[in-house]
Amino acid sequence: MYKNLREYIARLAQMGEVVRIGTPVDPVLEIAEITDRVSKSPGGGKALVFENTGTGFPVITNMLGSGRRIAAALGVEDLDDISRRLDGLLAGAMSPKEGLWDKLSMLPLLASASRWMPARIRGRGACQQIIYKGEAVDLGQLPILQCWPADAGRFVTLPLVHTVDPETGARNVGMYRMQVTGKDTTGMHWHLHKTGERHYRAYKERGELMPVSVCLGGDPVYTYAATAPMPDNMDEYLLAGFLRDSKVKLVRCITNGLYVPADCDFVIEGFVDPEEEKFTEGPFGDHTGFYSLEGPYPRFHVTAITRRRDAVYPATVVGIPPQEDVYIAKATEKIFLAPIRAALQPEVSDLYMPEAGVAHNLALVSIDASYPGQAFKTASSLWGAGQMMFNKVMLVAGAGTDIRDPEQVAACLRGISIPEDVVITRGVLDVLDHATATPGTGGKIALDLTHCREAAENTMQDDLPLPEGATGIEVSLALEWATLLIGYRSACPTDLTVLAEAVRDTGIKFIIAVDDSVLTLPYEEASWLKDILWYCAGNYDPGRDTEIYGNMLLIDARAKIPRRPGFPARTPNVVASSRETIELVDRKWQDYGIGEFISSPSLKYRELLHGEGAVAEP
After folding, report:
1. Which of 610, 613, 615 is nearest to 571 (CA)?
2. DSSP state, 456?
3. Are 188 and 272 in contact (CB under 8 A)?
4. Distance (Å, whole) CA 443 – CA 424
5. Contact at 8 Å (CB) between 227 and 96?
6. How far apart are CA 150 and CA 293, in angstroms?
């Protein structure tokens, strides 16, 4: 276990995984632009420590943003080590115990579990070495970031938000962004489906103030645990204790009765008044790569800020993938695959959430298929399991398919039988899904790839008809992925049937309409296909935007700028830096000492903007 965040940074330095930047930087936009360039470098780049932020505190970003760093944060050489440990643990715990000797064999497991339980300690922790209360509370003293130009202001982006169920006392540690609205107030952005929101409603029913404490920093395992899809009412610090094989030590807060890890860097204590009218929070450039727009959320009132003497402020930057959260998701895939197999779907052999799917838009699953329809049974079950309920597109392949190998997945897609291998339904979606007209619910699609049939030879001709309103057709995906992209101007209705008729017997299975600006993305870049997938998945509601036409799926994956019934009331813009911020970082690049110049990723993504604000304009 790392004793504090500085100890983890020292470990990263030993690994050659951190760069210190001594030149003055602005937490408003500049730090985020630098981080975005580095985090999109091959392998996730380096962690960055900004030592001169205009406050008394350094800022670390991208601290979990590589395979090596997330493994180091969780205390292993390789994430597969955790998977193997969990597999062994669950196999022992769930196997039949018939005789006395078998039952006694469980005693070591029980002894280990006792080491994982969080423990309260007396006195104050290192997180309370310095205390600010009353008039001394000022969030403006912290180097809180504004990441993107249309953000509503500064946001705490890596908070460990502590709440308790007022009925049971069960603790929840979640990660909900916090918009700073004053020296002692922030927003509390917990969604309808989140545990923090459930606790909020419970306090509202009781007519009581809701105590909330927010931690920053400390052992990086806490940050991971706060993001993990833990079952409701299961303590995140139990997961942290399992990963560390030692218990998390907790101390009581100064101004409320909540307990927090003693070794955190900052603790922001306070309350939410459920009777207070919600305020308009947002917009915010989110991990989806689009802005999440304004909405009503509770206000958090700060009663105290405590910290370590040597506190480091941790922050993350989210936006168009890949970012740091990609590597956090990779850890979740490894850690939670074993529980899924043991408790929910024993036939599941692998689970993969590609970075372009931003966690909830796309998932690939491989299963040991033994009967017809099993792929759809698996999809339905996973759609009812925890945070997998937010998944929108699921591809279910046989266990013999490596779902992490694009060539093998493409081969299965070429051999799909439409409509037999397609199920379209409706269910729960992430509140951040902007394509649906009904926030929180929308269409879902599952494709059965377990057959992986031999595909017919692609015989597509060169002279394809261009439908009215279309500006171009991209055929580079036709051979491998059996897919055509067709660009349309944003205001034009689509009619893909003309093109579908022209390629009916050519082996093409998918025709996807995109905004014509998407076809201008640099094709020679290795990220081109990921960019296409990210943009299309984000703007796609399977229930509304899919048409089955013979043996093809016709898909409208354009930005749903309001222009007809059934579209969302507002469509968010793509997240990209301003030209001014890009030019500032260009000029100062040599001063940062990061190394070879990295061009801004926002330069190409700005071509996808519909106006400069958070809301896409027609």
Report:
1. 615
2. P
3. yes
4. 7
5. no
6. 10
For the question of residue 515 being annotated catalytic, the response is no
Report how far residue 434's alpha carbon sits from residue 291's, in angstroms, rounded to the nearest whole number. Answer: 9
What CA–CA distance (Å, rounded) separates 526 from 510?
A: 22
Query: Contact, 223 vs 237, CB < 8 A?
Result: no
**Half-sphere exposure in the Cβ direction for 603 (13 Å, CA):** 10
Q: Is 513 exposed, middle or buried (0-12, 13-18, 19+ CB in 10 A)?
A: buried
Predicted TM-score of the model (pTM): 0.93
Q: Over 76-117, what HEC string results? A: CCCHHHHHHHHHHHHHHHHCCCCCHHHHHCCHHHHHHHHHHC
CA–CA gap between residue 314 and residue 158 (Å, rounded): 7
> How many CB atoms are closer than 10 A to CB 98?
8
- The per-residue pLDDT for range 148-206, each reduced to its tens digit, is 999 999 999 999 999 999 999 999 999 999 999 999 999 999 988 888 999 999 999 99
What's 615's DSSP letter?
B
Residues 373, 398: Cα–Cα separation, whole Å: 12
Tell me which of 263, 286, 448, 515 is the catalytic residue.
286
Quick check: 40 and 63 in contact, CB under 8 A? no
* pLDDT, tens only, 512-562: 999 999 999 998 777 999 999 999 999 999 999 999 999 999 999 999 987
Read off the tokens for 611: 């106006």
C-alpha triplet 298, 300, 302: angle, nearest 5°: 170
280 within 8 A of 269, measured Cβ to Cβ: no
Contact indicator for 543, 442 with CB cutoff of 8 Å? yes
CB 34 within 8 A of CB 592: yes
Q: How many CA atoms lie within 13 A of 573 on its CB side?
A: 25
Hey, what are 61's tokens?
């970003």
pLDDT digits (tens, 9 = 90+) for 242-251: 888 889 999 9
Q: List phi, psi (to 5°) of 53.
A: -110, 5
Tell me which residues of the chain have a pLDDT lower than 70. Answer: 86-113, 338-344, 455-462, 490-491
Query: Whole-angstrom Cα distance, residue 185 to residue 244?
Result: 34
- Give the SS3 label for residue 444: strand
Taking alpha carbons only, the member of 58, 53, 80, 70 closest to residue 17 is 70
Name the E strands within 159-261: 160-164, 171-174, 178-182, 185-187, 210-216, 249-252, 259-261
Q: Three-state SS for 21?
A: strand
Cα–chain center distance at 582? 25
Report long-range pairs for 516-524 (Cβ below 8 Å, ≥24 apart).
Answer: 516/471, 516/472, 516/487, 516/488, 516/489, 516/490, 517/487, 517/607, 517/608, 518/485, 518/487, 518/608, 519/471, 519/472, 519/474, 519/485, 519/487, 520/607, 521/604, 521/607, 521/608, 522/604, 523/476
CA distances from 214 to 352, 406, 515 (A): 31, 41, 41
